[in-house]
Specification:
CATH architecture of the largest domain: 3-Layer(aba) Sandwich
CATH topology of the largest domain: Rossmann fold
Structural class: alpha/beta
Oligomer: single chain
Order of helices and strands: HEHEHEHEHEHEHEHEHEHH
Number of helices: 11
Number of domains: 2
CATH superfamily of the largest domain: Aspartate/ornithine carbamoyltransferase
Helix content: 40-55%
Radius of gyration: 19 Å
Length: 308
Amino acid sequence: MKRDLKSLQDFSSKEILELLKVAIDLKKCKGRLRNDLKGKSVGLIFQKPSNRTRVSFEVGVSQLGGQCVYLGPEEINLGKRESTEDVAKTLSRYLDAIVARTFSHQTIVELSQYATIPVINGLSDLFHPCQALADIMSIQEKFGRLKEINIAFIGDGNNVCHSLMLACGKTGANIHVATPKGYEPNADILQQVQKEAHKTGSKIKVGYSPKEAIKGADVVYADVWVSMGQEAEREERLKIFQDYQINQELVKSANPDYIFMHCLPAHRGEEVTKEIIDGKNSVVFDQAENRMHMQKAVLLFLLKKFSK
C-alpha cells in the first residue's frame, strides 16, 4: 500500500528515528552518486515560489539517479485550470511520486486521496513536514540527541511551528512556543501534539513571553513574521510581533552553547538581527543543506528503497 507524507502524523516515532539515521548516513556520502531511484521520476507541483524546496529535491533526486519534472502555476493551476482529482490521476500514470507546495493543506489531502503514487507535502498553510525533519536532523547533529533538548520557537504559530511541535512530540524533544495573542498554534494540531508527547515524554508549552520561552533553551528558532500570502497584513504584523525579535539581549537567557535556527528566507532586522543569524551560534545553512539529505531519505522510504 502506498504511503504519503502529508504531515508528520503519517510517520510513527520509530519511522522518524529511522529516517534520521538514514539521512545522516546519506550526508556522510555527500556528493556520491547512487542508482536507488534510477528510472524514477518525481513531479514538483508548486503553487508558491521556492528556493530550498525546489533545489534540494531536484538535486537530491538527481544524486539518487532519478529525475524531477517541475510543474509551476503556469503548467498546472490546481483546481482552476484542471481539477485536483484529475491532475492526481493523470500524474499517477507518468510519475513515481509527487511533491506539492500549495497554499491550502486541503489540496495536499486531495492529491493524496486521488493519486496512486506517494504524495509529499513540500509546504502547505498547516504543515511543513520536510522542514521539521531537517530541523530535528540538524539538532541531532549538533547535540547528539533529541531527548531533553529544549527548543524555543519565537514568533507566529504557523505551519513551520506546527510541524516542529509534531517532530518534538514524536521524538521526545521539548518545545516552548512564544507567540502574540491571536497567533497561537492551531488548537486541534496542538491537541495532536500533546497526545504524541504523552507517549514520548516530550514537554510542550505554548505561551506569550519570549523571555520565558528562551530561558535555558538549547535551540532558538525563528520564522518570518509575514509569510507568502500575508503581504496585506505586513504593517499590522510588524507592530504586533516587534517584541518577538531574536536579538543579543533576548538570547542572554539561552544556554551559552545554544544554536540558532531559521527555516529561511529570513528578514534581518525583523524577526532576527544580523548579529544572531550570521553569528557563531547560527546553524541556518547546515539546516538548509539538511533539507536535501532528509528528503532523499523520505523518498527512499516512500518508494520502498529504504534499507532498515
